[in-house]
Amino acid sequence: LDVQERLHNADPDYPGYRQDLSRTHYNLGIVARETGDPADAVSELTAAARLLDGLPADDMIQRRHRARIDLNLGPALRADHRLGEAAAACDRAIALFDALIAEHPDRYAFRYEREMAVINRGLVRLSDRDPAKAEADLTSARDALARLVNDFKHTPLYRAGLAKAYNGLAAVAFDTGRADEAADMSAKAADEWTALIAQQGTADYHGELGISLCNRGRALYGSNAMAAKDLLTHGLTELLIGLRANPQEPAFNDTFQKQSRVLAGLLVWDQDRMGAEKLANRIVAELPDPVRSTHRAVVLLAACVAAVGHQKRATTEADAYEAVAIKLVTAVRPADWSALRADPDCAPLMARPGFAAAVAP
Question: Are residues 81 and 21 in the same domain?
């Protein structure tokens, strides 16, 4: 970046320097998005776009790069709660890809990227409380991506896009109170991720499968609690594979945190303390940082303690979950538990003197 900036500053009108620097800012924006820093992602992607302003727009590669900037800027702005700007970025990306497709109808990658921009716009519209338009976008993208998958069965990227469209439709169904449809869309997404794992079992695909399984479990929570428990347990174990490779991935972290609380209530309801202990131990074993992994396991056990209280079960059950948590934290020495002590999700255990003493400074 420093070298490119010096070259650009020395000759700011030279297109090659501007294009190279734009791509570096673009890559930094992608990294910021994937590590949960949407404001920085917006800054980097905006800088990438600004460097292209004023350059001749007759080069296909450059035009695609400009479209891809907006393709990624839309979700970054949405994550930064700038919904109007996010929608505008999605619209720009769609328009740019439409022009490229019109000129190069046999470049199917352009069609895929266009539909990803449509998915992004659908999710922006859902965040902006317009589920009808969101569903229209997501349905359109699903249908187009299904055609691409049918024509190019061995192109993983197209199948991953289709799975994301199903996930988006599940989100719309959740938002509009259609639990059965949310379960169905989540199951279809899970089927696509499972097929991808059979082809090419990347950690990201496992994490995405985990999200879909957890979503289906959440959808079945009110109608089939046992199935929901099994799906959530499976989903969290798949998410662990994704988190092991990508510990900062925002979607994996957010889903794991939220759905572990849901699962905790089901584990307590089913009196499945052994299942909770097994999952807590797996969390510690699967993730590389012993302090952070133990913290995650403690969050699950703290949610179990809270569920014992909510469900008015015997206090001895809470004592048993506390004992597991104490065993886990005392196995990590030395350790700085300041983040755990300050975490509201750990409060049910911090309120118990035995556990509080185990993580005291």
Answer: yes
pLDDT of 181 higher than 80: yes
Residue 193: half-sphere exposure toward Cβ, Cα within 13 Å: 27
| Residue 51 confidence (pLDDT) | 92
Please state, in angstroms and rounded to a whole number, the distance separating the CA atoms of residues 194 and 79. Answer: 27
Q: What is the tally of structural domains in the chain?
A: 3
Q: Which of 152, 178, 209 is where one domain is finished?
A: 152
198-214 pLDDT, tens digit each: 998 899 999 999 999 99
pLDDT tens digits along 287-326? 999 999 999 999 999 999 999 999 999 999 999 999 999 9
Q: 319-325: which pairs have CB atoms within 8 A and are 24 or more residues apart?
A: 320/273, 321/273, 321/276, 321/349, 322/349, 322/352, 322/354, 322/355, 324/276, 324/277, 324/280, 325/280, 325/297, 325/298, 325/301, 325/349, 325/355, 325/358
Last residue of a domain, one of 104, 131, 152: 152
Q: Give residue 207's pLDDT.
A: 98
Cα separations (Å) of 113 from 95, 96, 276? 12, 10, 41
Residue 312, domain extent: 271-361
Q: Do 126 and 208 belong together in one domain?
A: no
129 and 210 share one domain: no
Cα→Cα distances 272→218, 240, 262, 333, Å: 18, 21, 14, 29
Regarding whether 223 and 194 lie in a shared domain, the answer is yes
Q: Are 165 and 250 contained in the same domain?
A: yes
| 261 and 278 assigned to the same domain | no
326/250 same-domain check: no
pLDDT of residue 232: 98
Dist. CA 25–CA 34, nearest whole Å? 14
The share of the chain scoring above pLDDT 90, in percent, equals 90
Would you say the pTM of this structure is higher than 0.85? yes
